[in-house]
Amino acid sequence: MTNDQILAIRAQFPALHQDINGKPLVYLDNGATTQKPQCVIDALSRYYSENNSNVHRGAHTLSDRATQEFEDARRTVQTFLNAAKPEEIIWTRGTTESINTVAATWGRQNLTAGDEILVTGMEHHSNIVPWQMLCEQTGATLRPIPVFDNGELDMEAFASMLSNKVKFVSVVHVSNALGTINPVKDIIAMAHNVGAKVMIDGAQAVSHWDVDVQALDADFYAFSGHKLFGPTGIGVLYGKEALLNAMPPYQGGGEMIEHCSFAKTTYNVLPYKFEAGTPNIAGAIGLAAAIDFLNRVDRIALAKHEDSLLTRANELADKIGGIRKIGTADKKASVFSFLLDGAHPADVGTLLDQQGIAVRTGHHCAMPLMEQFEIPGTVRASFSFYNTLDDVERLFAGLEKAKMFLL
Ligand code: 7TS
């Protein structure tokens, strides 16, 4: 990809083009949320100005239009993930709600005392706490798969932890704190060998490349719209149809029922069984617009560009020195997590912000991982395809300044 091509893509993201604290913004907090292209902003505005109506229940044209767009959006996600059927795509608020849904439904239905759930030592809290809550309710045990100090998963340890006690494995596809890309296809196959079901937390993966849930053979896959250039408050739970059909509903309310009476209520078919209440219609439509945008660009070339940003960050870090890299796995997405020797991450973040550079600092909702590294947190620069080599240079120039100030 040429720099001009990157700049042409970047031009479609209005929030990137502003000054922050008197300097042109360098937005390197894409792991927390990505910026939105104009086509997503327009899709939201058009929905509310032209088609706003409730879905699935109107005897009028506007409602039909809203329903059509909403269900088209589901099919867009189905194609994006290569799911077998649109019924396997459940709208949620985001990754967190997707994981909680599976824990509260499949988990409560299928787990008992003595069963084991495996996660990794590099999970986001949203892929730890729902399982802990489930363990409290069922007497099952949660066990973390160990992580090496370079940020790679210990696959031998994983193999040795697998037994017929393990009923569920939930693993992050790409670590938000380290950038590690986990070998989820192998993990799924190994877990299936002992009869366990597998959920993949794809929150940080789908923004970098296309995911194929059938090729992975994932039982469940979760992601958030806002980390995929779409709106906040919308996310996706993919689940295999047979599993979703056998699971009880998550929340009760409108839309999820077939028939309601005080004697007995029966539940709606998929996907509506898991979509109680008025959904985030605009969010779904906005997310589909984001996916349409991604379908129009060369994602493979953009992923290569992201890799080149990470390579440059590594080179510049070695050049300026005094930087401890956290997460040096062989296979990494464009996340650069580090500590500046002798400086607290929060101070580094503040000094970068004063120069218009947005990074995230802290434990990144991965406190068990931070404990392993015996650090309070890191400074994290997470790159997206709209970042430029110039953004990386600005980050390190900013760090040189921060060093002069702090050390
Ligand atoms: N899983 C992973 C791997 C994540 O990175 C995040 C959010 C979540 C789950 C939760 O997603 P949500 O959309 O439901 O909140 N991660 C981050 C982050 O790294 N900085 O801010 C949020």
Rg of Cα set:
22 Å
CATH superfamily of the largest domain: Type I PLP-dependent aspartate aminotransferase-like (Major domain)
CATH topology-level fold name of the largest domain = Aspartate Aminotransferase, domain 2
User: Which structural class is indicated by helix and strand composition?
Assistant: alpha/beta
* Share in β-strands: 15-25%
User: How many helical elements?
Assistant: 14
Task: Give the strand line-up of the largest sheet.
Answer: 4-10-9-8-7-5-6
Unreliable spans are none
Characterize the structure shown.
- The protein has helices at residues 3-10, 38-51, 61-81, 95-110, 129-138, 155-161, 184-193, 213-216, 241-246, 281-296, 299-320, 345-353, 367-373, 389-406, and strands at residues 19-20, 23-24, 26-27, 89-92, 116-120, 141-145, 166-172, 197-201, 220-224, 235-239, 257-259, 266-267, 323-325, 335-340, 357-358, 360-362, 378-382.
- The protein folds into two domains: 3-30 and 298-406, Aspartate Aminotransferase, domain 1 (Alpha-Beta Complex); 42-295, Type I PLP-dependent aspartate aminotransferase-like (Major domain) (Aspartate Aminotransferase, domain 2, 3-Layer(aba) Sandwich), CATH 3.40.640.
- It is α/β, with parallel strands linked by helices and 407 residues long.
- The radius of gyration is 22 Å and the shape is globular.
- Ligand 7TS binds at residues 31-32, 94-96, 124, 126-127, 172, 176, 201, 203-204, 224, 360, 364-365.
- Residues 31-32, 94-96, 124, 126-127, 172, 176, 201, 203-204, 224, 360, 364-365 line the site of ligand 7TS.
